[in-house]
Amino acid sequence: MTKLTNFSIFVYVIFFVVALNCGNAKKTWGLLRNNKEEDKKPKVTHRGKTFEPTCHVDYKENSYGGICTTADMCDLTVIDKDGHARSAGATFLKHVAGINGEKCSPGESCCADVQCLNGHGHCMDTKFRTCKMKTKSGQCPGGKTVTCCPNSAKSLQKYDDERFADNKKCLGGEGICRLRSTGNCEHSWVGNQCGKGKEVCCPKSAGAEAKWKKVKVQKMCNYVGPAAAHLDIDITILMAFNKVESGGTASAIRFECHKFLQYSKEKVPCTIEPGKTFSMEKSENGPGAFKRAFTKDKIAAIKATSFGYFQVMGFYLLQINNNADEALKLFKADPEKISRKLLIMWFTDPTWGKHAAKAARKIKSVNSELKQWEMLVRKFNGNGQIPRYVPLLKKAYTFYKGKCPKRFTYKKDVIKLDGLETASWPGREGRSEYPTLLHELFKKKNFDDWFSHGRGKIPFGAKLGDHDRNMMA
To answer: What is the DSSP letter of 335?
Structure first.
């Protein structure tokens, strides 16, 4: 028992000695580390020369080194230890402390280089110095003349990128969504970029919006191009329809209550003013109206709604899938793909789409024969829409003219990626291509059911009104 006790004491002694040595080693390492950190302490650059700091100022949890100097020798912002900024070279004896707590000599003050913009700029008194860049206010303490001078032309943007790193991007990544209250935007604010809410898009550069618009146009050209090649129609015309019909929004839908009343026994609000052929009330033609109608009669609701970039009526969407729920899911899952498929289905439809395509192929410029423009709109939108849509279409056509490559530069094979198969149909003028699904539709005995309305069925081939005959919105 004694031997065990003596051995235990011996172990405790050894452990104590080792711990003591480790403590001294740790202390020694701490001193060395502090010395290294002291060696890394930033120097003060003043008038092109580097100095060891002889004083310091504290501001926003940061300490900035400076040198004690007189007013005529200080070109930097002077801020004393109490956080109050003075004009460069100002004299204050009480508050300025040196590295070891000593004060600057009488008549001198701590001339410190205080950073701003998260290190991307320096505070300066513009009363004594001139900043080559556009200054940023609200970054430095002191009087009206003390402001932040960015290090370079890109400093302000770097600061914003860091400050709003988690914010939503806009203009294809060339802008940042933020509240106006967070500070001025160096470039003009751009609306309709940040979705719902109060945030607005602040471009990163003066040309950010123009660059984004150009990229957006080229992207749409590449999207429409294969369809133009497949249909042998000028890409500019299809670009114009995209602009006029949906404003370039693939997920756009427009519910037409008067059509729903024709296709269904169910009732929905539908206010049509004298001289109009459809409701102008947003509550009767928007997505909300479609959802309400869909709960009453799914098939009729889809047939009475135009979908996608080119606002093709849901009649064609139901040819892709005759199950209303599944058809709607297809559109929501990939509105771009479905929009292009619907466009081709309509223009290759031998009933009226091919006549519109024929007129479109004769249009070579905005000054082409007016009757071709009118024929295109008559088939696309309806006879009653000619006065309104022809000017709009021409304006959009002029905007896009020359901005897209020729349709011949695009491959027709791209359309196969949309899953659109074609089949031959013996028309009056020979054999023309149109979707297999329409081919199957023409073989159905109850084809005229698709054109039924409140007064009974209109047999296929009978004279139809504008809104029944044309399957475009």
So the answer is: H
Cβ atoms of 21 and 33 within 8 Å: the answer is no
Q: Strand 169-170 vs strand 175-178: parallel, antiparallel, or unpaired?
A: antiparallel
Q: What is the pLDDT of residue 166?
A: 93
For residues 384 and 470, what is the distance between their CA atoms, to the nearest angstrom? 11
State yes or no: pLDDT of 421 exceeds 50: no
Give the pLDDT of residue 399.
Answer: 95
How high does pLDDT run on average in the chain? 76
SS3 of 394, please? helix
Cα 344 to Cα 313, 353, 354, 418, distances in angstroms: 13, 9, 10, 11
Are 256 and 285 within 8 A, CB to CB? Answer: yes
Phi, psi of 395 (to 5 degrees): -65, -45
How far is 287 from 271, CA to CA, in rounded Å? 16
* Residue of 79, 88, 74 whose CA lies nearest to 116: 79
Please write the tens of the pLDDT for every residue from 179-223: 999 888 888 999 999 988 899 999 999 999 999 999 999 999 999
Beta partners for residue 110, in sequence order:
68
Mean pLDDT across 107-131: 79
In angstroms, the CA 344 to CA 317 distance is: 12
Buried b (16+ CB within 10 A) or exposed e, 98-125: beeeebbeeebbbbbbbbbbeebbbbbb
Q: How far apart are CA 403 and CA 217, in angstroms?
A: 8
Type and span of the H or E element at 178 = strand 175-178
Residue 267 near residue 274, CB atoms below 8 Å: no
pTM: 0.63
Tokens 């604010």, located at residue: 189
- Return the exposure string of 170-207: e unless at least 16 CB atoms fall within 10 Å of the residue's CB, then b: bbeebbbbbeeeeeebebeebeebbeeeebbbbbbbee
Each residue of 275-293: b (16+ CB within 10 Å) or e? eeebbeeeebbeeebbeeb
How many residues are listed for the chain in this entry? 473
What's the whole-number mean pLDDT along residues 266-295? 90
